[in-house]
Design a protein that fits this description.
The chain is an all-alpha fold. It contains ten helices and no strands. Helix 7 packs antiparallel against helix 10 and helix 8 packs antiparallel against helix 9.
Length: 305
Amino acid sequence: LTYGVIAGFGGGLIYLPPIATAPKWWPDRRALATGFSVVGLGLGSFIMAPLATYIIDNYGWRNVFIYVGIAMCAMAVIASFCLKNPPAGWIPAGWKPQVKSGSGSEGEFRDYTHRETYRIPQFWMLYGAYFCGSFAGLMVIGHIAGHGIDSGLAPMTAAGAASWLAVMNAASRVLIGQVADKVGTRISFLGVFGLQALAMILLFPSGGMFWALWGVSALIGWNYGSMFTLFPATCLHYFGPTAQGSNYGLLFTAWGFAGFAGPYVGGWLKDATGSYSAPFIVSAAMVASAVIILAAVKPPKRMGA
Protein backbone atom coordinates (compact mmCIF):
# COMPACT_ATOMS: atom_id res chain seq x y z
CA LEU A 1 0.00 0.00 0.00
CA THR A 2 2.67 2.52 1.00
CA TYR A 3 5.13 1.78 -1.78
CA GLY A 4 2.79 0.63 -4.55
CA VAL A 5 -0.06 3.11 -4.11
CA ILE A 6 1.24 6.12 -2.19
CA ALA A 7 4.70 6.20 -3.77
CA GLY A 8 3.23 5.55 -7.19
CA PHE A 9 0.73 8.36 -6.76
CA GLY A 10 3.49 10.71 -5.64
CA GLY A 11 5.65 9.74 -8.59
CA GLY A 12 2.85 10.70 -10.94
CA LEU A 13 2.46 14.08 -9.25
CA ILE A 14 6.17 14.78 -9.71
CA TYR A 15 6.37 13.46 -13.27
CA LEU A 16 3.57 15.42 -14.94
CA PRO A 17 4.07 19.12 -13.98
CA PRO A 18 7.45 19.56 -15.75
CA ILE A 19 6.06 17.93 -18.91
CA ALA A 20 3.11 20.31 -18.90
CA THR A 21 5.20 23.40 -18.10
CA ALA A 22 8.44 23.19 -20.11
CA PRO A 23 6.89 23.33 -23.62
CA LYS A 24 5.05 26.51 -22.67
CA TRP A 25 8.40 28.26 -22.24
CA TRP A 26 9.83 26.88 -25.50
CA PRO A 27 6.88 26.58 -27.91
CA ASP A 28 9.32 26.66 -30.81
CA ARG A 29 11.14 23.55 -29.50
CA ARG A 30 8.34 21.67 -27.80
CA ALA A 31 9.62 18.15 -28.36
CA LEU A 32 13.12 19.05 -27.17
CA ALA A 33 11.71 20.79 -24.08
CA THR A 34 9.65 17.70 -23.34
CA GLY A 35 12.73 15.52 -23.78
CA PHE A 36 14.70 17.50 -21.21
CA SER A 37 11.73 17.25 -18.85
CA VAL A 38 11.58 13.46 -18.97
CA VAL A 39 15.29 12.65 -19.20
CA GLY A 40 15.61 13.15 -15.44
CA LEU A 41 13.43 10.12 -14.90
CA GLY A 42 16.00 7.97 -16.67
CA LEU A 43 19.09 9.64 -15.24
CA GLY A 44 17.75 9.48 -11.70
CA SER A 45 18.12 5.71 -11.65
CA PHE A 46 21.86 6.02 -12.33
CA ILE A 47 22.22 8.13 -9.19
CA MET A 48 19.71 6.44 -6.91
CA ALA A 49 20.57 2.80 -7.63
CA PRO A 50 24.19 2.91 -6.38
CA LEU A 51 23.27 5.36 -3.61
CA ALA A 52 20.47 3.11 -2.36
CA THR A 53 22.78 0.09 -2.53
CA TYR A 54 25.37 1.92 -0.42
CA ILE A 55 22.77 2.86 2.20
CA ILE A 56 21.40 -0.70 2.34
CA ASP A 57 24.87 -2.19 2.78
CA ASN A 58 25.87 0.25 5.52
CA TYR A 59 22.64 1.31 7.27
CA GLY A 60 19.98 -1.27 6.39
CA TRP A 61 17.04 -1.33 3.98
CA ARG A 62 14.63 0.47 6.30
CA ASN A 63 16.84 3.55 6.42
CA VAL A 64 16.87 3.75 2.62
CA PHE A 65 13.20 4.70 2.60
CA ILE A 66 13.68 7.23 5.40
CA TYR A 67 16.69 8.99 3.86
CA VAL A 68 15.36 8.91 0.31
CA GLY A 69 11.99 10.18 1.49
CA ILE A 70 13.57 13.13 3.29
CA ALA A 71 15.78 13.94 0.29
CA MET A 72 12.88 13.76 -2.16
CA CYS A 73 10.73 15.97 0.04
CA ALA A 74 13.47 18.60 0.21
CA MET A 75 14.11 18.46 -3.55
CA ALA A 76 10.40 18.69 -4.32
CA VAL A 77 10.03 21.82 -2.18
CA ILE A 78 13.04 23.47 -3.83
CA ALA A 79 11.87 22.51 -7.32
CA SER A 80 8.38 23.87 -6.66
CA PHE A 81 9.83 27.37 -6.36
CA CYS A 82 11.51 27.02 -9.77
CA LEU A 83 8.52 25.64 -11.67
CA LYS A 84 6.07 28.23 -12.97
CA ASN A 85 4.11 29.00 -16.10
CA PRO A 86 5.28 31.79 -18.43
CA PRO A 87 3.36 35.07 -18.40
CA ALA A 88 0.30 35.39 -20.61
CA GLY A 89 1.20 35.94 -24.26
CA TRP A 90 4.77 34.71 -23.83
CA ILE A 91 6.70 33.85 -27.00
CA PRO A 92 10.47 33.42 -27.42
CA ALA A 93 12.33 36.34 -28.95
CA GLY A 94 12.32 36.19 -32.74
CA TRP A 95 9.75 33.39 -32.98
CA LYS A 96 6.46 33.83 -34.78
CA PRO A 97 3.75 31.21 -34.28
CA GLN A 98 2.56 29.63 -37.52
CA VAL A 99 -1.20 29.48 -37.39
CA LYS A 100 -2.67 27.61 -40.34
CA SER A 101 -6.32 27.85 -41.17
CA GLY A 102 -8.43 24.95 -42.31
CA SER A 103 -9.67 21.91 -40.46
CA GLY A 104 -7.29 19.10 -39.75
CA SER A 105 -4.12 20.92 -40.84
CA GLU A 106 -1.06 20.68 -38.64
CA GLY A 107 -1.25 24.22 -37.31
CA GLU A 108 -0.33 25.49 -33.86
CA PHE A 109 -2.46 26.33 -30.80
CA ARG A 110 -5.16 23.75 -31.39
CA ASP A 111 -6.67 23.74 -27.92
CA TYR A 112 -9.13 21.30 -26.34
CA THR A 113 -10.48 20.98 -22.83
CA HIS A 114 -9.85 17.73 -21.01
CA ARG A 115 -13.47 16.65 -21.46
CA GLU A 116 -13.29 17.31 -25.19
CA THR A 117 -9.99 15.45 -25.47
CA TYR A 118 -11.09 12.07 -24.16
CA ARG A 119 -14.11 12.15 -26.47
CA ILE A 120 -11.90 12.37 -29.57
CA PRO A 121 -10.97 9.11 -31.38
CA GLN A 122 -7.39 10.30 -31.91
CA PHE A 123 -6.79 10.30 -28.17
CA TRP A 124 -7.72 6.64 -27.84
CA MET A 125 -5.67 5.73 -30.89
CA LEU A 126 -2.65 7.29 -29.20
CA TYR A 127 -3.62 5.46 -26.02
CA GLY A 128 -3.63 2.11 -27.83
CA ALA A 129 -0.26 2.80 -29.46
CA TYR A 130 1.23 3.86 -26.11
CA PHE A 131 -0.03 0.66 -24.50
CA CYS A 132 1.37 -1.54 -27.28
CA GLY A 133 4.80 0.12 -27.25
CA SER A 134 5.03 0.09 -23.46
CA PHE A 135 3.84 -3.52 -23.25
CA ALA A 136 6.67 -4.66 -25.51
CA GLY A 137 9.32 -2.47 -23.90
CA LEU A 138 8.48 -3.40 -20.32
CA MET A 139 8.29 -7.09 -21.22
CA VAL A 140 11.83 -6.94 -22.61
CA ILE A 141 13.18 -4.90 -19.68
CA GLY A 142 11.90 -7.55 -17.29
CA HIS A 143 13.31 -10.53 -19.18
CA ILE A 144 16.29 -9.50 -21.30
CA ALA A 145 18.91 -10.53 -18.73
CA GLY A 146 17.16 -13.87 -18.22
CA HIS A 147 17.15 -14.41 -21.97
CA GLY A 148 20.89 -13.88 -22.12
CA ILE A 149 21.51 -16.30 -19.26
CA ASP A 150 19.25 -18.93 -20.83
CA SER A 151 21.21 -18.50 -24.07
CA GLY A 152 24.50 -19.33 -22.33
CA LEU A 153 25.89 -15.93 -21.35
CA ALA A 154 27.41 -15.29 -17.93
CA PRO A 155 25.06 -13.44 -15.55
CA MET A 156 27.19 -10.27 -15.50
CA THR A 157 27.47 -10.28 -19.30
CA ALA A 158 23.72 -10.72 -19.64
CA ALA A 159 23.16 -7.90 -17.15
CA GLY A 160 25.24 -5.67 -19.42
CA ALA A 161 22.44 -5.84 -21.97
CA ALA A 162 20.04 -4.34 -19.44
CA SER A 163 22.58 -1.61 -18.68
CA TRP A 164 22.90 -0.66 -22.35
CA LEU A 165 19.13 -0.57 -22.61
CA ALA A 166 18.97 1.81 -19.64
CA VAL A 167 21.68 4.11 -21.03
CA MET A 168 19.97 4.47 -24.40
CA ASN A 169 16.60 4.81 -22.72
CA ALA A 170 17.85 7.98 -21.02
CA ALA A 171 19.88 9.39 -23.93
CA SER A 172 17.12 9.04 -26.50
CA ARG A 173 14.69 11.24 -24.59
CA VAL A 174 16.60 14.41 -25.41
CA LEU A 175 18.04 13.43 -28.78
CA ILE A 176 14.71 12.33 -30.26
CA GLY A 177 13.27 15.69 -29.22
CA GLN A 178 15.72 17.45 -31.52
CA VAL A 179 14.77 15.12 -34.36
CA ALA A 180 11.04 15.52 -33.79
CA ASP A 181 11.26 19.31 -33.80
CA LYS A 182 12.80 19.12 -37.29
CA VAL A 183 10.88 16.31 -39.00
CA GLY A 184 7.72 16.12 -36.90
CA THR A 185 6.51 13.68 -34.28
CA ARG A 186 4.58 11.50 -36.75
CA ILE A 187 7.62 10.67 -38.90
CA SER A 188 9.67 10.19 -35.74
CA PHE A 189 7.06 7.81 -34.36
CA LEU A 190 6.96 5.67 -37.48
CA GLY A 191 10.76 5.48 -37.61
CA VAL A 192 11.11 4.62 -33.92
CA PHE A 193 8.38 2.00 -33.85
CA GLY A 194 9.49 0.48 -37.15
CA LEU A 195 13.00 0.01 -35.74
CA GLN A 196 11.53 -1.35 -32.52
CA ALA A 197 9.58 -4.04 -34.37
CA LEU A 198 12.78 -5.07 -36.17
CA ALA A 199 14.71 -5.13 -32.89
CA MET A 200 12.09 -7.37 -31.28
CA ILE A 201 12.42 -9.83 -34.15
CA LEU A 202 16.22 -9.87 -33.79
CA LEU A 203 16.20 -10.16 -30.00
CA PHE A 204 15.71 -13.91 -29.62
CA PRO A 205 18.39 -15.08 -32.11
CA SER A 206 20.90 -12.57 -30.68
CA GLY A 207 20.73 -14.00 -27.15
CA GLY A 208 23.83 -16.20 -27.37
CA MET A 209 26.19 -13.49 -28.68
CA PHE A 210 26.89 -10.77 -26.15
CA TRP A 211 27.79 -8.12 -28.75
CA ALA A 212 24.58 -8.79 -30.69
CA LEU A 213 22.45 -8.83 -27.55
CA TRP A 214 24.01 -5.59 -26.32
CA GLY A 215 23.47 -3.93 -29.70
CA VAL A 216 19.84 -5.00 -29.95
CA SER A 217 19.30 -3.97 -26.33
CA ALA A 218 20.68 -0.51 -27.03
CA LEU A 219 18.35 -0.16 -30.02
CA ILE A 220 15.36 -1.26 -27.95
CA GLY A 221 16.33 1.18 -25.20
CA TRP A 222 16.58 4.02 -27.73
CA ASN A 223 13.16 3.31 -29.16
CA TYR A 224 11.53 2.71 -25.79
CA GLY A 225 12.90 5.92 -24.27
CA SER A 226 11.82 7.92 -27.32
CA MET A 227 8.19 7.21 -26.49
CA PHE A 228 8.40 9.33 -23.35
CA THR A 229 9.27 12.38 -25.44
CA LEU A 230 7.12 11.73 -28.50
CA PHE A 231 3.85 10.88 -26.78
CA PRO A 232 3.64 13.99 -24.56
CA ALA A 233 4.82 16.16 -27.47
CA THR A 234 2.13 14.68 -29.73
CA CYS A 235 -0.50 15.06 -27.02
CA LEU A 236 0.43 18.73 -26.73
CA HIS A 237 0.38 19.25 -30.50
CA TYR A 238 -2.95 17.51 -31.00
CA PHE A 239 -4.89 18.82 -28.01
CA GLY A 240 -3.18 22.06 -26.98
CA PRO A 241 -1.43 23.35 -23.86
CA THR A 242 -4.39 24.35 -21.68
CA ALA A 243 -5.20 20.84 -20.38
CA GLN A 244 -1.85 19.20 -21.16
CA GLY A 245 -1.31 18.05 -17.58
CA SER A 246 -4.62 16.20 -17.29
CA ASN A 247 -4.59 15.06 -20.92
CA TYR A 248 -1.15 13.48 -20.75
CA GLY A 249 -1.86 12.20 -17.25
CA LEU A 250 -4.74 10.17 -18.67
CA LEU A 251 -2.67 9.09 -21.68
CA PHE A 252 0.16 7.98 -19.41
CA THR A 253 -2.09 5.45 -17.67
CA ALA A 254 -1.55 3.31 -20.78
CA TRP A 255 2.03 2.84 -19.60
CA GLY A 256 0.78 1.87 -16.14
CA PHE A 257 -1.55 -0.82 -17.47
CA ALA A 258 1.22 -2.09 -19.74
CA GLY A 259 3.47 -2.34 -16.68
CA PHE A 260 1.07 -4.88 -15.20
CA ALA A 261 0.48 -6.81 -18.42
CA GLY A 262 3.82 -6.89 -20.27
CA PRO A 263 6.15 -8.52 -17.73
CA TYR A 264 3.42 -10.90 -16.54
CA VAL A 265 2.53 -12.11 -20.04
CA GLY A 266 6.22 -12.47 -20.87
CA GLY A 267 6.84 -14.62 -17.80
CA TRP A 268 3.73 -16.71 -18.40
CA LEU A 269 4.67 -17.41 -22.02
CA LYS A 270 8.22 -18.33 -20.99
CA ASP A 271 6.91 -20.80 -18.41
CA ALA A 272 4.35 -22.23 -20.82
CA THR A 273 6.70 -22.70 -23.78
CA GLY A 274 10.08 -23.04 -22.08
CA SER A 275 11.56 -20.39 -24.39
CA TYR A 276 11.69 -16.61 -24.80
CA SER A 277 10.80 -16.95 -28.47
CA ALA A 278 7.05 -16.64 -27.90
CA PRO A 279 7.26 -13.57 -25.61
CA PHE A 280 9.46 -11.71 -28.10
CA ILE A 281 7.20 -12.63 -31.02
CA VAL A 282 4.26 -11.20 -29.08
CA SER A 283 6.32 -8.06 -28.38
CA ALA A 284 7.08 -7.65 -32.08
CA ALA A 285 3.38 -8.06 -32.90
CA MET A 286 2.42 -5.43 -30.31
CA VAL A 287 4.90 -2.94 -31.75
CA ALA A 288 3.70 -3.69 -35.28
CA SER A 289 0.16 -2.92 -34.09
CA ALA A 290 1.40 0.42 -32.78
CA VAL A 291 2.95 1.20 -36.18
CA ILE A 292 -0.40 0.58 -37.88
CA ILE A 293 -2.22 2.79 -35.38
CA LEU A 294 0.28 5.64 -35.66
CA ALA A 295 0.23 5.45 -39.46
CA ALA A 296 -3.55 5.83 -39.38
CA VAL A 297 -3.97 8.54 -36.75
CA LYS A 298 -4.33 12.14 -37.98
CA PRO A 299 -4.33 15.44 -36.09
CA PRO A 300 -7.86 16.25 -34.88
CA LYS A 301 -9.93 19.06 -36.32
CA ARG A 302 -10.61 22.22 -34.40
CA MET A 303 -13.71 21.98 -32.30
CA GLY A 304 -16.55 23.47 -34.27
CA ALA A 305 -14.55 23.60 -37.52
